[in-house]
Every structure is written in structure tokens, then in C-alpha cells.
Amino acid sequence: MYEHLKLDNQLCFRLYTAARLVMQAYFPYFEPLGITYPQYLVLLVLWEKDHQPVNDIAHLLHLETNTVTPLLQRMEKQGLVTRKRGKEDTRQRIVSLTPQGKALEEKAQEIPECLLQQLSDRMDDINCLMGSMPALDALIEGLTQKAKSK
After folding, report:
1. Cβ count near 104 (within 10 Å)
2. Which domain holds residue 20?
3. What is the pTM of this model?
């Protein structure tokens, strides 16, 4: 057995497992709001700056537009967002929050703090984890650049 092929030596496995378990930890907060984790991410983008093109949302979430579009379509059916043709470029779709989508911001405002508290209850040093954000950002940027160069 090659040492570097052992599961315990895989960074990717830890990242995958942590991401999956964090999304699972969010579920009890999202269920009463009737949203999923990917929808929450879209809402975060739009709460920060409303009326954005689909391409910009996809870029901010490091996703392809063909991944984001079905998500936005479901959110539109739920009454959370609207999608309208751009005024300057009619090929472009501008996504905007509905009053219902805006109202969720108030209901969701405590979610980050609740989740952080839940994590810190289970960890000795949450600051260490929060301090790893720049390293994770660098990893994401590096992998994004590599994917673009293919």
C-alpha cells in the first residue's frame, strides 16, 4: 500500500467531510425558512448587493452559470427572486430579491452566529479554524485559476 494513498493522508477527504458536515449542521436553521444551503449562498450574495446578473452571482459563488440557473429558477418558483432581461444587454438575466426574499434576511440574521456557537461548543479553538480562512481562500483562488487555464 502506498502511504500517500491512505485515506488518513488525504486533505481532500477532510475538506469534503468538513463541508458536508457543516452543510448538514445548517439544515435545522434552513428548514423553517424553506431554503437549502445553495439557496442561502445565493441569498447572501443578493442581500449584500441586489439586482445582479446571473453571471456575477455564478462568479462570486465559484460556480458555472448552468449550475446557478436551475437553482435560481427554483428560487423564482418559491417567490424568493425574480429574473428579468437586462436593459442594456437583453441576453443577460438580472436577478433581484422579492419582498419575500428580502424578508428572509431578517429571519436568517442569527444563523451565522448560531452555527459559529455550535462549532465552538465542539472545538477547543474556533479561532484557529477562523484563522484558516485566508489559506482556504488562497486554495480556492489557486484551484479556480488552474480550472480556468484548462
Report:
1. 19
2. 10-113
3. 0.90
